[in-house]
Specification:
heterodimer; A: about 475 residues; alpha/beta; six-stranded parallel β-barrel; 8 helices; 30 strands; about 50% strand; flat; B: about 70 residues; mainly alpha
């Protein structure tokens, strides 16, 4: 089948034309994003159409092509793969392009002019609502004792000549407006941003009981020592939130790092970026996003709900920490019920209590519930080993099945092992405890016996310690 | 199997490879597995298709006088 007889080329051309038409008719349709995400399906469609054509020719008894894809066709495939991959990576927030920034790139040969922002101050009530309107740059907001809002800082203006920088500075004054209990801080950058990038780095002091709403881009936020709520929207840069008495809501895109500690109220995080660290959060935590780097939860004292890429996690509390990186999830001292579903990740849970419902698509699982009595567990991995280390005095009812693998048992004859098809099953009950179900599609299951971490005097302690001393 | 089936297997090789390449990249973009880890699948698929091609058009393992007059 040469290029003249195949319909694949014309059909793909029509589809591409349709996509561009959709983009021109409806500007909301992000064609570049669409191509970045779905370009591999062009190859799948091309192959599918050729396959269909060859199938029809075969059934009709028509001559079959020796080379359905010509040398030029394969060259096109290589070009599509390279261009598609580049487009895809260029759309990822951690690509260097996003850090370079267009404005900085254009103005790279310009000179940076620095201007001090004349201090602004207003007397306000004890618990004002402070709004920092959308701006480019960084802001450090700190709660202080007193009833004033103070803004200081400086502006960095990149320009080829000093006159233009002066004009940009004059046209973009930072203002502080008071309306009842609301304070609005405005940088007015839109007045000159198109010609000369103006960047403001602000230091803002507000009464400790203030609540803060801020929106920014290409800069860092550092907000601390407030008893009110914080509502933050930022694009790029980092966000550090510390010691907040109220709730915190963050929407961040392309963030380098979001680090929140000492938040008393509820906390929600939405968006995408590299690292996310939540430490010492007293309120419920909800995260829905795409964070590619390190995802760290430490000492969260109310229910946690996480949805990050292919990982969905829920726990009643995180007394220790949970660290999720690419390919690994390690958690210490989770309080259940714990629900965790993840993909292509090795999971290690140490010292959890309460029920556990764990599902891994592909990855090893290592579980060490150190506290007695045990709670029910359901663990499933499609491909990977499961290793469960139970305290020696634990009572449980086990049902473990390795569909293509072996089972190792350190609890002796109380658990019965038998082959089933190409796999092995291990079943039995010790002390009639809660049900533990382990299942791996391909891999081994190990049920180990470990030291005991029960409170002093709890049943089983002496026996278990004695066992290990021998 | 006859020669036409062998030709068919040979003809579908390119489209199948196209589909496999597309799927491998789609899997990478979904954040499941990178192409750097899945590319050996391409070699396996090529080998598999070659195998079917050979099986579809078997050649005699040694010269057979009865087949000498037949054209392949």
């Amino acid at each position: 089948m040469n290029s003249r007889s195949s319909l694949a080329g014309p059909l793909i051309l029509i589809a591409i034309g349709g996509l561009f038409l959709a983009h021109t008719i409806s500007p909301g349709f992000d064609l570049e994003r669409w191509i970045a995400d779905y370009w591999p399906y062009i190859l799948v469609a091309w192959g599918g159409i050729l396959l269909l054509e060859i199938g029809i020719r075969f059934l009709r008894g028509a001559p079959l092509p020796l080379k359905p894809v010509s040398a030029g066709g394969w060259l096109a495939v290589i070009v599509i793969c390279i261009a598609g991959s580049l487009t895809h990576f260029a759309h990822r927030h951690d690509f260097w392009w996003h850090h370079a920034g267009w404005v900085e790139g254009v103005q790279i040969f310009g000179q940076e002019h620095d201007y001090v922002i004349a201090p602004l101050q207003k007397t306000v009530g004890p618990a004002p609502r402070v709004i920092l309107e959308s701006f480019h740059g960084s802001a450090k907001v700190a709660g202080i004792d007193g009833n004033t809002v103070t803004v200081t800082g400086h502006k960095a203006i990149r320009s080829f000549d000093a006159h233009q920088a002066d004009a940009a500075n004059a046209a973009t004054p930072v203002s502080l407006a008071l309306d009842g209990n609301t304070v609005v801080i405005r940088c007015n950058q839109e007045r000159f941003q198109a010609h000369t990038p103006v960047r403001a780095d602000l230091e803002i002091e507000v009464p400790r009981a203030a609540s803060v709403e801020a929106a920014g881009a290409q800069g860092d936020f550092d907000i601390s020592s407030l008893t009110g709520d914080v509502d933050l929207k930022n694009r790029g840069g980092s966000m550090h939130i510390d010691n907040i008495g109220g709730g915190v809501s963050i929407e961040g895109h392309h963030s380098d790092i979001i680090r929140c500690s000492g938040v008393k109220g509820p906390m929600t995080v939405r968006g995408d970026g590299n690292d996310l660290e939540l430490d010492g959060i007293s309120g419920p935590v909800s995260v829905a996003g795409r964070y590619l780097g390190t995802f760290l939860l430490h000492q969260l004292s109310q229910p946690v709900e996480i949805s990050n890429f292919h990982t969905n996690f829920h726990a009643q509390r995180v007394d220790g920490e949970m660290r999720l990186t690419s390919g690994d999830l390690n958690a210490v001292d989770l309080v259940g019920p714990v629900r965790l579903a993840t993909h292509a990740t090795d999971v290690k849970l140490n010292g959890f209590t309460g029920t556990l419902d764990l599902s891994v698509d592909s990855g090893d699982v290592e579980l060490t519930p150190r506290h007695l009595p045990l709670a029910g567990m359901t663990v499933h991995t499609r491909s990977g080993d499961i290793e469960l280390t139970l305290p020696a005095g634990a009572s449980f009812t086990l049902s473990a099945f390795a569909a293509r693998g072996d089972v190792r048992n350190e609890f002796g004859a109380a658990l019965h092992e038998h082959s089933e098809g190409r796999g092995t099953r291990l079943e039995g009950s010790i002390g009639g405890g809660p049900p533990i179900t382990l299942m791996t599609g391909s891999g081994n299951i190990t049920v180990r016996r470990a030291d005991v971490a029960t409170p002093a005097g709890a049943p089983g302690t002496e026996r278990a310690v004695g066992f290990f001393r021998r | 199997m006859n020669t036409r089936v062998a030709l068919f297997v040979r003809a579908v090789r390119d489209p199948i490879l196209l589909i496999v390449i597309g799927v491998l990249f789609a899997v990478q973009q979904a954040g499941i597995l990178p192409v750097s880890r899945t590319w050996p699948l391409l070699i396996i698929v090529i080998g598999f298709l070659k195998l079917i091609e050979r099986l579809a058009a078997p050649r005699p393992p040694y010269p057979n006088p009865n087949w000498g007059a037949q054209s392949r």
